[in-house]
Amino acid sequence: xxxxxxxxxxxxxxxxxxxxxxxxxxxxxxxxxxxxxxxxxxxxxxxxxxxxxxxxxxxxxxxxxxxxxxxxxxxxxxxxxxxxxxxxxxxxxxxxxxxxxxxxxxxxxxxxxxxxxxxxxxxxxxxxxxxxxxxxxxxxxxxxxxxxxxxxxxxxxxxxxxxxxxxxxxxxxxxxxxxxxxxxxxxxxxxxxxxxxxxxxxxxxxxxxxxxxxxxxxxxxxxxxxxxxxxxxxxxxxxxxxxxxxxxxxxxxxxxxxxxxxxxxxxxxxxxxxxxxxxxxxxxxxxxxxxxxxxxxxxxxxxxxxxxxxxxxxxxxxxxxxxxxxxxxxxxxxxxxxxxxxxxxxxxxxxxxxxxxxxxxxxxxxxxxxxxxxxxxxxxxxxxxxxxxxxxxxxxxxxxxxxxxxxxxxxxxxxxxxxxxxxxxxxxxxxxxxxxxxxxxxxxxxxxxxxxxxxxxxxxxxxxxxxxxxxxxxxxxxxxxxxxxxxxxxxxxxxxxxxxxxxxxxxxxxxxxxx
Length: 515
Prior knowledge:
The protein is mainly alpha-helical. 57% of the residues lie in helices and 3% in strands. The protein is built from 18 helices and six strands. The chain has helices at residues 6-25, 28-42, 59-74, 76-81, 91-104, 135-157, 161-177, 179-188, 192-197, 222-242, 251-263, 268-282, 287-308, 314-322, 326-346, 376-406, 413-432, 442-455; strands at 110-113, 125-128, 208-209, 212-213, 245-246, 249-250. A two-stranded antiparallel sheet has the order 1-2. It has a two-stranded antiparallel sheet with strand order 3-4. It has a two-stranded antiparallel ribbon with strand order 5-6. A hairpin with a 2-residue loop joins β5 and β6 (249-250). The chain is globular and about 70 Å long. The model is unreliable at 457-476 and 496-502 (pLDDT under 50).
């Protein structure tokens, strides 16, 4: 793949001052969304800075930090009102506890290799180092940048319906701007990352599919880009419902245009997600989307137990896939087989995992890795154990349950549709992290936005809240002081027939000015 050029590192460094310029030229809230979303979509992959005693800072970290630093300066009140570790963010405390447990239970090094090679000569041994107390801060910072910070930004910056629409305008607008480059890569192969940053973002062979190519743009894989495209379709359905336009295009045009590009993107999973979910959020009544989001969220949190106990119908799914595509069935079977051996590997340290440095993987006697870690859930489970899985995935899917529980208290039908659509998007993103990896921090950002809309906002924003107490409601009875039958000053103007209404105020009648 080669090494990225110096321009890739320059782009990371310059992104923060560029974003501060954005905060000075547009509304701060919109600038924060642009800093995060556009940064993730256009900054380079594989370029990172690795300071001592801290995790590497890649484009995800720079995009989150740019949005956060700008918000600290220009949106300080919004960050202050959304208290850290409030609401769903308490799940991150479980992540922190798991980090301590992982470090304390993995001090032992792991020796691999040393067996006989194919030529009869012993292979060298390699040592996978154990964890120490110094790894705890690094793990906490990595998780804070990767899951807590994007979640907190979404929860703090998106508190009502109008703020959510601003966010979706940025998301959909970003995808619209990238459509032509994406179509170009579908035709000629993914080359933009190499042209701009000097190297491909990933192995070029992974982009070849079905006699053509997947587009990757500036992301690590075609799957990542397809999921962002699917996310944009969710956003376009909301813009259609609100009657908003992006780049002069109506919401309906955006929905069908983006969906058409997804159909030719050679990403079967994303197309399946779209077919199963988009029709539900386009209906007037989105209650079915809300119910499906809860079902999917339940599947995510119970999936490790279902796989460990062999209850999950893995073999049946492979047989079903084989009816339509042998290649898809083989790929699915390969993933399930690897999950089985990785679950067995994780079982001795199922509570806190094996820690980093590839200690969670499986090697043969020659030191060659014989396992493939595809799904984010098995990666998190093998490295951080059950506690780490519950903390990280709980932070992601708990807003779905909270939204379903509180949707009956929403006062505006448009906000109900907004919450149901966002909940289904978060649930679909979580489902995708079972067979696939954690490509960007955007799923946590949208989960935080869902939590923010559910928690906050009242009045015209259509937010949530308990019904007002009867003693606090205005008195519906007329005030006798303004009865026109008592005071002639409040009599209606000439020409108004019928009984004079109680509480008639001539100062508010436009016809009084013409007299």
